[in-house]
Amino acid sequence: MDHNQNWTRPEPMWRQDTELPTFDSMEENTSADIVVVGGGITGITTAYLLAKAGKQVVLLEADRILNGTTGHTTAKVTAQHGLIYHELIKHFGMDKASLYYQAQMNAFGFIEETIEKYKIDCDWKKEDACLFSTTDKGAEKVANEYEAYQKLDIPGEMTEALPFEMEATRTLVMKNQARFHPIKYLTALVDRFIELGGQIFEGTKATDLKEGETLQVETGNGSIVTCSHAISCSHFPFYDGKGFYFSRMYAERSYLMAIEPEREIPPGMYVSIDEPKRTIRSAEYNGKPILLVGGENHKTGDGIDTSFHYRAIEEFAAQTFGIREKLFQWSAQDLTTLDKVPYIGPITKKNNRVLIATGFRKWGMTNGTLAAQLLSNYVLGEESLFHELFKPSRFKADPSMKQFLSQNFDVAVHLVEGKLELVGDRPDRIKKGEGKVVQWRGERAGAFKDEDGELHLLDTTCTHMGCEVEWNSAEHTWDCPCHGSRFSFDGTVVEGPADQPLMKISLEKPSPRSLMDIKKMYEDQGQQDQP
Ligand code: FES
Fold first, then answer.
1. In whole angstroms, what is the distance from residue 59 CA to residue 36 CA?
2. Which among 277, 306, 273, 305 has a CA at the least distance from the CA of 293?
3. Ligand 1: which atom is nearest the Cα of residue 465?
4. Atom of ligand 1 nearest to the CA of 485
5. β-strand pairing of 269-272 with 125-133
6. Most CB atoms within 10 A, among 17, 37, 167, 488?
7. pLDDT tens for residues 486-509?
């Protein structure tokens, strides 16, 4: 079957049954105590906390609020972040591993108390979180993780059976975690923030920052916000400030489907640790119990036909639960840091006026809330026991150095391989709704033919640091395998760190790209520097 023919735009479920307020873009210069960039769970919670502390806060969002990773999450509120505690003990020791758990449970407590305090109707439900293996090797890893739970006094228990038709070799349960509707919860926080005098501007992309006596955050609209602190709560910080974040994180995509199953909905939230990855949890849609089934994680821009991943999830869901109705499907992008612990705090050791939070590794609900707590502590001059562990300037030789080398070796390979690859179809052979790497006048180019038959031809050189982007057939985007930038079929930036569109190729003129341009772009970005 040709899946390009049947393509429908993936839409997350969370925004379908919730009315979100809308906000104008910022057209004039303004000033505030703090500028928060990014309208997801981290940005909104940070803005709310600082406004509550009496600060004047402006929140800038490039698109619409709650339309990024927070709008595409599985919305599990848990301290069970896949396999993590055994590794944390090994690399950081017992104290830090224990702090990681405490920090997540603090964030859990904050969400629960906030829901109670404002009586937020957001489908909050306590459920056990379960990690399961399907192979013997996986079972060993689950046993190690359980041992770590016992050492750290994390309430958990190990079983073998799953309450649905799937054979597990081991299951590790973390009791009393929760799931909710993230948009309903965060809409309530947005309302509180506005009541407290906060300002939100949508369609306002922060593009740069000038540091002087005060900070000046520049926007794509040409307007500027003057402030004393700037906080980046977007994936890659909008301002890198020599933190070299693009070389210290990698991007992964994963897929999710909302279905009405034929079989009974199992209680609990499930994540598998063996390949292919699977995630399962119940939810409500229009008052009806449904199931979210997902997984299929892979590095962004790995060149594999991405619609394959939706098909794989659908097959798994049909086999395991039966599908009465397929409601929605969508995908998300997440960043992982070198040591799997998020970066939260000053952008560099010496700059405590610019703060960042990123690298939540798919566990954004507690990590995003925790980040908001820590960021507001920093701005308000409050000490926190968790600051040190999450500080972005930490750099531990193991595992960070190993990951750093492997990640940047991968980038170098993509950079070179992409340039050498001269396979590809001819643009005139592309069908409607199809995107492909093609050869155009002897060079690699990206072609997409829209439903009206118009051909969009792009230079596939990523404008961040010159790797070659790959077509994502499920989302109709061009994705970069190096640091996860994504571009729409017409080259517009969908996701950073790139901030410039892909170059359009005119069908009349030859491509302007040359290897010298790429080399220069790479050198200009200071790739040789270490974090
Ligand atoms: Fe860095 Fe493309 S995202 S080179």
1. 5
2. 277
3. 4
4. 3
5. parallel
6. 37
7. 999 999 999 888 989 999 987 765
Residue 371 · residue 344 · CB < 8 Å = yes
Q: Is 516 helix (H, G, I), strand (E, B) or coil?
A: helix
Q: Which atom of ligand 1 is nearest to the CA of 462?
A: 2
pLDDT given at position 511? 45
Q: Could you tell me the CATH number of the domain that includes residue 292?
A: 3.30.9.10
Q: Which of 245, 408, 482, 495 to probe ligand 1 with, by most ligand atoms within 8 A of CB?
A: 482
Give the model confidence (pLDDT) of 277-323 as tens digits: 999 999 999 889 999 999 998 888 776 677 889 999 999 999 999 99
Give the E-state strand segments of 262-358 in sequence order: 269-272, 278-285, 288-299, 323-337, 343-348, 351-358
Residue 214 and residue 349 share a domain? yes
pLDDT at 98 over 50: yes
Alpha carbon 149 to its chain's center: 27
Residue 212's domain comprises 27-72+183-247+340-394
Torsion, Cα 356 359 364 368, to 10 degrees, reads -20
* 306 and 451 inside one domain: no
CA distance 473 to 490: 14
The CATH number that applies at residue 240 is 3.50.50.60
Residue with the nearest Cα to atom 4 of ligand 1?
A: 465
Atom of ligand 1 nearest to the CA of 484: 3
C-alpha 485 – ligand 1 centre gap (Å): 6
